[in-house]
Amino acid sequence: MNIGYALAIAGHGDRWGHMGNDGWSGWMWLWGTLMMLFWIAVIGAAVWLVVRAATQRRAEPPTGRERAREILAERYARGEISTEEYDERLAKLR
């Protein structure tokens, strides 16, 4: 039997489809669905990572003056220095 004869006798609907058994029968529907969900998840994760990276602020360490003001404010909040001393030292930092 040659290929031409086999193609000639293979009519529509006799299970010679590309996927076998008329396309999406058997377990192929499950495999296709899982692959589609996988790619949707991959694309969704990529979009989420890009958006997160774009919106995330990179915290820079404070400079010397900023850190000194933070320490001064912490000491004032704990009651270690008076209001006059806080104002005086803050004025010097400016």
How would you sum up this structure in a few lines?
This protein is mostly helical and 94 residues long. The protein contains four helices and no strands. The radius of gyration is 36 Å and the shape is rod-shaped.
How would a textbook summarize the main sheet?
none
Indicate the radius of gyration in whole angstroms.
Answer: 36 Å
Tell me the strand percentage band: under 5%
* Strand segment tally: 0
Question: Which secondary structure elements does this structure contain, and how are they paired or packed?
Answer:
Elements: H1 3-9, H2 28-55, H3 64-78, H4 83-93
Helix pairs in contact: 3-4
Distinctive features:
mainly alpha; 94 residues; 4 helices
Can you give a write-up of this model?
This protein is mainly alpha-helical and about 90 residues long. It has helices at about 5-10, 30-55, 65-80, 85-94. The longest helix is centred in the middle third of the chain and has 28 residues, at about 30-55. It is rod-shaped and about 105 Å long. The relative contact order is 0.05. The model has no long low-confidence stretch (mean pLDDT about 80).
